[in-house]
Amino acid sequence: MSLKIGDKLPSFSAKDTNGNIFNSQDYIGKQPLVIYFYPKDDTPGCTAQACSFRDNYQEFKDLGAEVIGISSDTITSHLKFKSKFNLPFILLSDNDKKLRKLFGVQNNLFIIPGRETFVIDKQGMVIMVFNSMSSEIHITKALKVLKKLTN
């Protein structure tokens, strides 16, 4: 079952690129989250999406939000990807695909892991779900929703 608008963010934890455990509950009540699932590190569409989040990262921060990218790649792969493209945001490894299942992110064409973005408000409620293999649109939609929160 997929997370939908109005659902509460489920509690989860995963290892980040610094080897630290990221815990979703540490952010509830503090700041909005933009959580995006992507298929694979260092592939054309995923790189374009990550670089677009990077290029707009300050705008997300100015709106009070933290960006979190999640794929099933290993921490080692994430470290290379983050370093190669100077990505300032959190990358989490979901190599057992538990987070993908928890959020209900489906595969596209039955084999390619889905590309889906969730915006979570400060209180931990899902306020946007966007599923599209078109990588660039995710950033625009997430920023639009976050701007509505601050107005």
From TrEMBL:
Q: Which InterPro entries match?
A: AhpC/TSA, Peroxiredoxin_AhpC-typ, Peroxiredoxin_BCP/PrxQ, Thioredoxin-like_sf, Thioredoxin_domain
E.C. no: 1.11.1.24
Q: Which reaction does it catalyse?
A: a hydroperoxide + [thioredoxin]-dithiol = an alcohol + [thioredoxin]-disulfide + H2O
The record's keywords, sorted A to Z, are:
Antioxidant, Disulfide bond, Oxidoreductase, Peroxidase, Redox-active center
Superkingdom: Bacteria
Name the PROSITE patterns on file: THIOREDOXIN_2 (PS51352)
Alphabetized Pfam families for the sequence: AhpC-TSA (PF00578)
* Start and end residues of each Thioredoxin domain: 3-151
Q: Per the similarity annotation, which family is this?
A: Belongs to the peroxiredoxin family. BCP/PrxQ subfamily.
Q: What is known about its subunit structure?
A: Monomer.
Stated role: Thiol-specific peroxidase that catalyzes the reduction of hydrogen peroxide and organic hydroperoxides to water and alcohols, respectively. Plays a role in cell protection against oxidative stress by detoxifying peroxides and as sensor of hydrogen peroxide-mediated signaling events.
Q: Which protein is depicted? A: thioredoxin-dependent peroxiredoxin
Query: What is the scientific name of the source organism?
Result: Flavobacterium chungnamense
